[in-house]
Design a protein that fits this description.
The structure holds two protein chains of two kinds. Chain A is α+β, with helices and mostly antiparallel strands. Chain A is built from five helices and four strands. Chain A has helices spanning about 5-40, 40-50, 50-65, 90-95, 105-115; strands spanning about 70-75, 80-85, 120-125, 135-140. The longest helix of chain A has about 30 residues, at about 5-40. The termini of chain A are far apart. By secondary structure, chain B is an alpha+beta fold. Chain B has a single domain (about 20-155), classed as Muramoyl-pentapeptide Carboxypeptidase, domain 2. A four-stranded antiparallel β-sheet of chain B has the order 2-3-5-4. In chain B, helix 1 packs across helix 2 (about 40-50), helix 2 crosses helix 6 and helix 3 (about 55-65) crosses helix 6. The chains are: A alpha+beta, B alpha+beta. At the A-B interface, helix 1, helix 3 and strand 1 of A face strand 1, helix 1, helix 2, helix 4 and helix 5 of B.
């Protein structure tokens, strides 16, 4: 069994494998498929509860992933934000000195979640400018 | 603070790292590779994982013998609350899994399950062992989350 605690390096290797098979395009196709097929829980929560559903979804996953983060929801302003101070995924890849993270690893968070949230009418922004240091920022707004 | 404002502020040390939904993402990846690139490609991918990420485990196995694998399985199956037994049959290390935590989670959460999922164990174990001069076997019961894995040093 590949433990769930070993998944992130296996995931990064998958992106590299797909990239070798069909360039970044093949990786993007996988992310799109994963978003459509695997993120039903986020889709359902965001559809039923709006930004509060986003808060509920990420409060569960980010605590289980032991992330270092600040997450806020202001329902009056219609804004949900995640300030990722140390991403558990990229952090894990940076810690493993014997493997090289997939060059565009962090972009999966852009494709996966944008593809769920924008069709539901939310505005999704992600700042990946510091992602190689395991830091990023996500803002989801009501349109 | 208004009840319309919610904040969570967590440090890494506040929580234990154990996100079992990742088993679902890996299972989905296996199905995706099988469907879009064929089973041979899935095997190539798993060999790559075995040779790259698990390289330190192969090196430890080569250096320290089966104790390296024993410690590895003990750690991950305990962390994931699997039901398992580890023992030796002569020179062979035997891992008997009565409830695979990955398959149990997939079933409990009603996540996608492919019968090819256990190939992750078969191929990755084989790769880790081959790199270290060891052999292994894995007999699993499809969809039951039960298997018997054996590991031994290659005869020269």
């Amino acid at each position: 069994m590949i433990s769930c605690t070993e998944f992130i390096p296996a995931y990064s290797e998958l992106f590299k494998f797909l990239d070798k098979k069909g360039d970044k395009e093949a990786v993007m196709r996988f992310w799109e498929n994963l978003s459509d097929s695997f993120l039903g829980n986020l889709r359902d929560l965001a559809e039923r509860k709006g930004l509060a559903g986003c808060f509920e979804y990420w409060s569960h996953s980010l605590t289980e992933e032991a992330a270092d983060f600040r997450m806020s929801l202001d329902e009056d302003k219609g804004v949900f934000e995640i300030e990722m101070r140390y991403c558990p995924s990229m952090g894990r890849l940076l810690k493993e000195k014997h493997i090289e993270p997939y060059e565009f690893y962090c972009e999966h968070c852009d494709t996966l979640y944008r593809r769920v949230l924008e069709p539901l009418g939310f505005k999704y922004e992600i700042d990946l400018s510091n992602c190689k240091d395991a830091r990023c920022k996500v803002i989801v707004k009501n349109n | 603070m208004s009840d319309k404002i919610k904040v969570i502020d967590c440090k890494q040390s506040d929580n234990e790292y154990l996100h079992k939904d990742f088993h679902g993402a890996l299972c989905y990846a296996i199905k995706y590779l099988d469907d879009n690139f064929g089973e041979k490609a899935t095997e190539e991918y798993l060999v790559q994982v075995g040779k790259t990420y698990f390289k330190p485990l192969s090196e430890k196995l080569k250096k320290d013998g089966l104790k390296a694998l024993e410690d590895h399985w003990q750690y991950i199956f305990q962390k994931e609350n699997g039901k398992f037994r580890l023992h030796y049959e002569g020179d062979k290390l035997v891992l008997e899994v009565d409830q695979c935590p990955a398959i149990a989670h997939l079933k409990e959460k009603n996540m996608l399950y492919t019968e090819r999922y256990c190939q992750t164990t078969v191929v990755v174990n084989k790769t880790i062992c081959q790199q270290a001069g060891y052999q292994c076997s894995c007999e699993y019961q499809l969809g039951k989350g039960k298997c018997v894995q054996k590991f031994w040093r290659e005869q020269k």
